[in-house]
């Protein structure tokens, strides 16, 4: 049986420009994105409420994250004219469809992250401690 590794690769078969995984990572790879999406999973929420729910997020980072999510069609922003204006955010259908895969990743993390930490500790001990 011929090993799949013995074939000479002439051209790359994995591409950042066409790979579905890299495209989705472009959307959700910011560490704040998942947290902001989770903050909105129960429905309409105001900016201040999102900020209070997410420990450590700055106003600037929250604003940037919300704008990017809105640009990508995952979040809807509604401004109600008043003094001061009321700004509410909610997930679009597209944003809601992202919750399922994110929950799967969250479950994987709960089940496996301790193994990742053990692997890191073993690696660090083997390669960094003398």
TrEMBL record:
<dbReference type="InterPro" id="IPR002577">
    <property type="entry name" value="HTH_HxlR"/>
</dbReference>
<dbReference type="InterPro" id="IPR036390">
    <property type="entry name" value="WH_DNA-bd_sf"/>
</dbReference>
<dbReference type="Pfam" id="PF01638">
    <property type="entry name" value="HxlR"/>
</dbReference>
<keyword id="KW-0805">Transcription regulation</keyword>
<dbReference type="GO" id="GO:0003677">
    <property type="term" value="F:DNA binding"/>
</dbReference>
<protein>
    <submittedName>
        <fullName>Helix-turn-helix transcriptional regulator</fullName>
    </submittedName>
</protein>
<keyword id="KW-0804">Transcription</keyword>
<keyword id="KW-0238">DNA-binding</keyword>
<feature type="domain" description="HTH hxlR-type">
    <location>
        <begin position="19"/>
        <end position="117"/>
    </location>
</feature>
<dbReference type="InterPro" id="IPR036388">
    <property type="entry name" value="WH-like_DNA-bd_sf"/>
</dbReference>
């Amino acid at each position: 049986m011929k090993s799949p590794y013995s074939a000479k690769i002439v051209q790359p078969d994995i591409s950042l420009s066409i790979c579905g995984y890299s495209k989705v990572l472009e959307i959700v790879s910011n560490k704040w994105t998942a947290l902001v999406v989770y903050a909105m999973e129960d429905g309409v929420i105001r900016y201040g409420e999102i900020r209070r729910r997410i420990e450590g997020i700055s106003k600037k980072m929250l604003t940037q994250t919300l704008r990017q999510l809105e640009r990508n069609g995952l979040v809807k922003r509604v401004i109600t004219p008043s003094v001061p204006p009321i700004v509410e955010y909610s997930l679009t259908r597209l944003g809601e469809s992202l919750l399922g895969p994110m929950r799967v990743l969250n479950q994987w993390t709960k089940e496996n992250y301790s193994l990742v930490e053990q692997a890191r500790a073993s690696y660090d001990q083997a390669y960094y401690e003398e």
